[in-house]
Design a protein that fits this description.
40% strand; alpha+beta; two-stranded antiparallel sheet; 174 residues; single chain; 25% helix; 7-stranded mixed sheet
């Protein structure tokens, strides 16, 4: 197991490095990072690659992940923007921290304490999705995204549905 597979997880009340897959199978509370990249009133969303071990093919926010043990959340946000979407040179800004618990299929549960970041897309931004992570991206207005999630929630990840339903004002100020 590599260090990248160990994520900050609460075990018996203490934060400790723990196997990522094991944390999901046991439904343990763990740290996460989510990013929403904005261009005016539009947000970049991604459709998760079919090879992902949970929620494959579902639409999610710009990127989301688990920090490595001892990795600062903002560094994690920058890393995953680069690894998942080939995006560099944006400045993620902390928006909020939320906690949620959701079943994600395959006997797995996400019980996350999430540092949420927003970032502004510079003009002429190039997005180069990593096909192992992302099968499709698109820009959509926040209002249209909320409407699509309400109309077809099964097409979106549980965490994106939760963020929009319960934390939208805290993330986007709207």
């Amino acid at each position: 197991m590599s260090a990248a597979d160990l994520i900050p997880t609460w075990v018996e009340g203490r934060l400790a490095p723990f196997d990522k897959l094991g944390a999901h199978l046991k439904g343990l509370r763990h740290k996460a990072v989510s990013v929403f990249l904005m261009e005016g009133d539009r947000v970049l969303i991604q459709r998760r690659a079919l090879g992902k071990y949970h929620t494959p093919g579902l639409w999610a926010n710009t990127c989301c992940t688990h920090p490595h043990w001892d990795e600062a959340p903002v560094d994690c946000a920058r890393r995953r923007l680069r690894e998942e979407l080939g995006i560099e040179g944006v400045a993620p800004v902390f928006a909020d921290q939320v906690e949620y618990r959701a079943e994600v299929g395959g006997g797995m549960t996400e019980h996350e304490v999430v540092d949420i970041f927003t970032a502004r897309a510079p003009e002429g931004l190039t997005v180069t999705p990593n096909p192992d992570e992302v099968m499709e991206v698109r820009w959509i207005t926040l209002a249209d995204l909320v409407a699509e999630v309400a109309a077809s929630p099964e097409h979106f990840t549980p965490w994106l549905r939760i963020y929009l339903a319960e934390h939208r004002a805290r993330i986007f100020g709207a």
